[in-house]
Amino acid sequence: NISVSRLEAPDVQEPDSAAAESASQTESEPEPEPEPTPVTDASGVWGEVALSALNSEDALRSALSALKAAGADRAVVTLKDERGYVYYDSAVEMASEAVRSGADIGLFVRLCGEYGLAPCARLTAFLDPLTPYAYRDAAVYYEREGILWLDTSAELGGKPWFNPYSEQARGYVLALAQELAAAGEEMIPDFDGTGL
């Protein structure tokens, strides 16, 4: 149950062979999980842990073991995503409507320590289409007051964003980061929602 960023491009197959292979896999066994391929940058080797792995100690141990075996030294879990959802029991007031699950952050931090991995939290900061509806002072607006700015038309699924110039929006993201840092997490601020 791990999700990792890949450095290599996916294999490309001819349409006929891909269809035949797909049909034979459907009849036999499901595809195995891909081997983790951590991402390396100047600060270390990063591997991503799927949020679902935090639902049980066994699943989390399996995910962390796979990351360690793949050479990672940091385990990343997304705790605030590009939809505005927060995936742990936050005490930050602005997060009250955004909490979607109570991931056990203490377990994540403890087990990362056991496996020699630095625990890291990804927080998508300003791409947050949920919270600006509840906290309108934190949203980006068109020049005319009262009209939320959307990143595309409403008909095409346009979403409002947090305003990076809003003290309230910055305060919310900072409060989440401070809360997770107090739990032992390193932060990976994700300012545009694109991931690693």
β-strand number: 5
Main sheet attributes: strand count, strand direction, barrel closure: 5 strands, mixed
Structural class designation? alpha/beta
Oligomer: single chain
Mean pLDDT, rounded to whole units? 78
List the main descriptive attributes of the protein structure presented here.
196 residues, alpha/beta, elongated
Can I get a quick summary?
This protein is of the alpha/beta class and 196 residues long. The protein has helices spanning 15-27, 57-69, 105-114, 131-134, 167-182, and strands at 39-41, 44-48, 74-80, 118-124, 186-190. The longest helix is centred in the C-terminal third of the chain and has 16 residues, at 167-182.
Structural features, described:
Residues 1-28 have low confidence and may be disordered. The chain is α/β, with parallel strands linked by helices. A five-stranded mixed β-sheet has the order 1-2-3-4-5. The protein has helices at 15-27, 57-69, 105-114, 131-134, 167-182; strands spanning 39-41, 44-48, 74-80, 118-124, 186-190. It has five helices and five strands; from the N terminus they run H-E-E-H-E-H-E-H-H-E. The protein starts with 14 loop residues before the first helix and ends in a 6-residue tail after the last strand. Helix 2 crosses helix 3 (105-114). A hairpin with a 2-residue loop joins strand 1 (39-41) and strand 2. The chain is elongated.
